[in-house]
Design brief:
Length: 332
């Protein structure tokens, strides 16, 4: 229990931020949620705390939001795998993180949990990677991964050089309810449920229920070592297996065709060009195809041992996600 202490959670209109805010409220915290005035309202309905308006890129609003807070969970991020100008993603996540952490230092915030990503960790051929395999900016594939590497290194530097009281968590691939946008993985679930993914590439990912990731944030703030990273993951699952589970839930036949990546690259070029013309994210990108060469498998042993972290079966996460998407009318 937090005995009524106040925590600021950024990004509460988003998928992970909404879950993190609810997890801290359940743990006894007084939750103050930061959201932009332009943010979708879905996850702000029945919010378990107080909403304040601001932006992680605006120093004045961050200082005002942190006033009187005992702790901070910085979850907000530009979570796009593609943008018309990819450097926008890097700039947003680097400068947003810098602005938030500078405000926390100025406010004397005593405890901070920073939400990074397994995007900052190098995958391990034939196994599950852990926190000992950091990526560099030069080795990260795509603007989103580069942005998270740069932001994470910035937090580490501020811990070492300026005494920032931050613990770093690295969620794997969260799925579950309140994925309003939806995230790239949520889009896969929706498209598959609607029968629009008749084939797959040979790749895999680590799936975790978003509520388990959120609980991991609470544990990290309470028990984590300052400056230390903790992967918050679930189970390693092949994409073919995931699509089969989605098919089972919605009564469709699972896809059985495995596609080679090479012929898909021209389609990715076309998809990105069309997306730039229409101003919306493409379903297929070159970076996504490059990343699919690796099985994004990760181990949460450190979090389990040091924080007492655990995750429910990935099939339950899929079921909860599909039920929420269906309730939103996103699955026909």
């Amino acid at each position: 229990m937090a005995n009524g202490e106040t925590i600021l959670v950024t990004g509460v209109s988003g998928f992970v931020g909404a879950a993190v805010a609810r997890a801290f409220a359940a743990d006894g915290w007084q939750v103050r949620g930061l959201a932009r005035t332009t943010s979708p309202a879905t996850n702000l309905e029945d919010f378990p705390g107080t909403i304040v308006r601001g932006d992680m890129l605006d120093a004045a609003s961050m200082r005002a939001a942190l006033a009187g807070c005992d702790a901070l969970a910085h979850v907000a991020a530009d979570y796009r795998l593609w943008a018309p100008d990819p450097e926008d993603i890097v700039r947003h996540n680097r400068e947003g993180t810098r602005t938030v952490m500078e405000a926390a230092l100025a406010a004397g915030t005593r405890r901070i949990v920073y939400t990074s990503s397994v995007a900052t960790i190098a995958p391990l051929a034939g196994g599950a990677a852990d926190e000992t395999r950091p990526l560099t900016e030069a080795t990260a594939i795509g603007a989103y991964k580069r942005s998270k590497v740069v932001a994470e290194r910035l937090v580490e530097q501020m811990v070492k050089e300026r005494g920032l009281q931050a613990v770093i968590v690295n969620p794997s691939t969260p799925i579950g309810p309140r994925d309003v946008r939806p995230t790239p993985t949520g889009r896969i679930l929706v498209e598959a449920a609607n029968g629009k993914m008749p084939a797959f590439v040979d790749t895999g990912l680590n799936l975790v229920h978003v509520d388990d990731v959120a609980r991991g944030h609470v544990l990290a703030l309470a028990k984590g070592e300052i400056g230390r990273q903790y992967i918050l993951g679930g189970e390693d699952v092949m994409l073919e297996t995931l699509l089969g589970e989605v098919a089972r839930h919605v009564g469709r036949k699972p896809p059985t065709v495995s596609l080679p990546r090479g012929p898909l690259m021209p389609l990715a070029y076309v998809s990105e060009a069309w997306a730039k013309l229409k101003g919306r994210e493409p379903m297929l990108t070159r970076d996504a195809l490059r990343m699919s060469h690796y099985r994004m498998f990760f181990a949460s042993d450190r979090a389990a041992t040091e924080l007492g972290y655990g995750a429910r079966p990935w099939q339950q996460a899929v079921g909860d996600a599909l039920a929420w998407f269906r309730g939103q009318g996103m699955i026909r």
